[in-house]
Amino acid sequence: MTKIKDIEHIFFDLDHTLWDFDRNSRLAFADIFQKNKIDVAIDDFLEAYEPINFQYWKYYRESRITKEQLRYGRLKNSFKAIGVSIDDHLIDRLSVDYIDYLPKHNYLFDGAVEQLEDLHKRFKLHIITNGFQEVQQLKLQNSKIDHFFKTVTSSESVGVKKPDSKIFLHAMDQAAAMPENSLMIGDNYEADIEGALNVGMRSICFNYHKTDLPPAIHKIDFLSEISRYL
């Protein structure tokens, strides 16, 4: 395995990379369904929701929809997909409740804390996220990993989303980092890996989604494998 050398700064994605989004999301939906007396099996709902949410985030990254359209549309279409009729007023309430409840559950991927503790001793650590700014900071704080990161750059604070080069350049500027001494670690090939490579950063793909990746891409299946490259 080829070592990645001369790295001083490591930029992490948050959702699906350090923060176990799917697990925490399931728990949040269970909470808000109970709160709003929605009698729907979580497994049936999530089977429809997860691919719809993935597609809506792609639309959001491409600026084809707004944050409000993402929050509403992914829920409306998920209920429609499983044949459950939910009025728009309740959809709006669920979309707000979901954002409120999501950062109350803060499971991290196995090995996340151990890796951060080790890497924090040797590198300057940062976050670059497309997630909503008001929620991401709560996730970092509530999962007790915020102290590991010197800077947190959100797409909302910059006005563009990964893979747009501007968010990577802005994050490096905030960190006083250069592309040649920076490494991006994330789960999304298009947003995290291609975005980083396009500005001259090195990258490691946490292949959480088990997608086919080009042979030249550095990839890991578990966070504990990061040290093999560094």
Question: What would a concise description of this structure say?
Answer:
The chain is an alpha/beta fold and 230 residues long. The chain is built from ten helices and six strands, in the order E-H-H-H-H-H-E-H-E-H-H-E-H-E-E-H. The protein has a six-stranded parallel β-sheet with strand order 3-2-1-4-5-6, with helices on both faces.
Structure, explained:
The chain contains ten helices and six strands; from the N terminus they run E-H-H-H-H-H-E-H-E-H-H-E-H-E-E-H. With 230 residues, the protein is α/β, with parallel strands linked by helices. The chain has a six-stranded parallel sheet, sandwiched between helices. Strand 2 (124-129), helix 6 (133-142) and strand 3 form a beta-alpha-beta unit. The model has no long low-confidence stretch (mean pLDDT 96).
Features:
6 strands; 230 residues
Percent helix, as a range, is 40-55%
Q: List the secondary-structure elements in sequence, H or E.
A: EHHHHHEHEHHEHEEH
Q: What ranges have pLDDT less than 50 throughout 5 or more consecutive residues? A: none
Number of discrete helical segments: 10
Reading side by side through the largest sheet, how are the strands ordered? 3-2-1-4-5-6
Average of the residue pLDDT scores: 96
State the end-to-end distance. Answer: 10 Å
Report the β-strand fraction as a percent range.
5-15%
Q: Give the biggest sheet.
A: 6 strands, parallel
The beta-strand count equals 6
Radius of gyration: 18 Å
Shape: elongated
- Overall structural class, as computed from helix and strand content, comes to alpha/beta
